[in-house]
Amino acid sequence: MGGATEDDNAMRWFLERADGGDVLVIRASGADGYNDYFYNQLGVNINSVETIVFNNASAANETYVLQRLEKAEAIWIAGGNQANYVNFWRNTEVANLINEGIQQRNIVIGGTSAGMAILGGAYFSAVNGTVNSSTALSNPYTSALTVENTPFIEVPYLDHVITDTHYDNPDRRGRHMAFLARAITDYGGTFRGIACDEYTAVCIDENGIASIYGTYPDFDDNAYFLVPNCGIPDNTPETCSPGQPLSWNQDGAALKVYQVKGTPTGLYTFDLNDWSTAEGGDWQDWSVNAGALTTLGSEEPDCLPSSTYAALDDDSSFKIYPNPNSQGVVTIEPSVPTPKAEVRVINLDGSILQTWTSLGPNSQLDVSRLPAGTYYLEYRGGRKRRSTRRLMVR
Asked: Contact at 8 Å (CB) between 233 and 352?
């Protein structure tokens, strides 16, 4: 949740998943204002609500605190300063019990502002203070930009996600892009982003489907899903170095960003299984050139295998053999050949690894450079005519 007044409908969604159990609010500042709100004002039957305020790191060792964490069916992390959460809870039994609850007891967990900030597998820890977009873009290695991936809160579907909040006031887009650039540069792999305007909530169910709650059309409440452009084989920042302005341009399309309105019923959704299937919003291209952010309207990513595309003529099937493949060469044999077809190898993150163009009816492809693993082999007979098969490399 983005950080201002809570969205009542999103909070009902949260409390319903406590299944009538005990709700625990944890925070490092403030008071017990959530207690009455959760218990009396939302019309959801729950057994109890309790708030624990951590005044220092030693509270993470209190027996009573640990007992309440063990019993909770829902945990809500309030706003405040996420540096306190990192300093007080990371590498403690508090974090262990939260993760045990998620993994072993299927508890529901959520947070607003600082509470949302620590739910990603990588996170802006703010241990050296906050940072604004202009500072982050002018020097992504400024001491205030602390992006960490030390294991902390382990939430399904968010292991390679960095969140950010308060997206409407002030505008956080530039610094969020700097967070992603730092994570990719420092830790490697693919990182993605989820962000909320202040009155907006992203509610992710057990199947990885995110429903967006807010008050649109009365107010302009948005959530954002940031995905490095998987249509570019090497989509890493061009310049992400200490003392240098960030450049992550890639011809103006470094990130594909889905902006979607939050509605009272959570009508619009985004699928975190493929980071592509979505409804209700619009795609944008975001880029940074020498510290200057540009955002433009765009189309959906055209690289992830997807069932939303029309089948290849009347028969979407094609053969690939040998599969599994340990010989370094695979033969592709489409049922309905297309002149000058294109074939792509795509990894499970959606990144394009190899491309062959102008192929004939039957072709042999050299896949010897691929490490052992599972990939998608995609046969493209035009932008809207494609089909996909799994390829196993040993």
From this structure: yes
Is the pTM above the cut of 0.90? no
Task: Say if strands 123-124 and 147-148 run parallel, antiparallel, or are unpaired.
Answer: antiparallel
Q: Span 318-393: which CATH code?
A: 2.60.40.3080
Contacts of 38 (CB under 8 A, 6+ apart): 11, 15, 23, 25, 44, 46, 49, 76
334 with 316: CB under 8 angstroms? no
Alpha helix locations (H) across 17-74?
33-40, 63-71
Q: What percent of the chain has pLDDT over 90?
A: 72
Q: In this predicted model, what pLDDT tens digit does every residue of 73-99 receive, in sequence order?
A: 999 999 999 999 999 999 999 999 999
C-beta separation of 341 from 383 below 8 A: no
C-alpha to C-alpha distance for 22 and 75, rounded to whole angstroms: 9
pLDDT of 283 strictly over 60: yes
The tokens 């006031």 sit on which residue?
A: 169
Instruction: Please determine, looking at this structure, whether the domain spanning 8-297 carries the CATH number 3.90.1180.10.
Output: no
Domain range summary for the chain, segments of one domain joined by +: 8-297, 318-393
